[in-house]
Amino acid sequence: MFDLEEVIRERHSTRMFLPDRPVPRSLVDEALALAVRAPSNSNLQPWQMVFASGAVRDRLVTALLHEARSRPPKIPPLPHAFAHLRRELGAQVYGSMGIAREDTEARREAVLRNWEFFRAPLAGIVCMHRDLGSVDCLGVGMFLQTLLLALTARGLGTCVQVSIAGYPEIVHAQLAIPTELSILCGLAVGYPDPSFPANDLRISRRAIDENVVFHDA
Predict the structure, then answer these.
(1) What is the pTM of this model?
(2) How far, in Å, CA of 172 to CA of 53, rounded?
(3) Which member of 25, 112, 198, 202 has the greatest number of CB atoms within 10 A?
(4) Does residue 120 contact residue 196 with C-beta atoms inside 8 Å?
């Protein structure tokens, strides 16, 4: 048994992995066996996962990088009221890498690492049937969070990547994912590179009362 609170606090986004240290399949299977216990509407269990490693993963990365160098990803912009949060996160992440705001080339190279899965040896794709809606996305989200915690408890690093969904046609073609499945995000899985400074970054959270309201009188 693992200490749940410790695992929750330990989980964070890993932004560089050890590419030559493979992920044991047994650990992923154990984590998946726990993740499928997540709740879902009407027990639909709407999550669909596709994993790629080895040569398949490398072909996917090559195709994604080619596309990323040619055109921007199809990712909806954040509403104006929330856009500053992404900028603030970017400042922390790039700052931890020692990349100055005006260093556009270094930032470009850092952004491209998204489509390398930050060099993780195991690339995951999170999908859901296109006919399902937002309530079923909740089920996928709970599955994914449970999976992240289970992988963290087993000493693995992870990073959920919306950027991967920016080129859905590439992912569909490279991994033969049926067209009825929507690509929600990517998931990088591997062992964190201890020499990469951004892996020590811990992003703060807002005060609970900014997002939570109790009515008790």
Answers:
(1) 0.93
(2) 16
(3) 198
(4) no
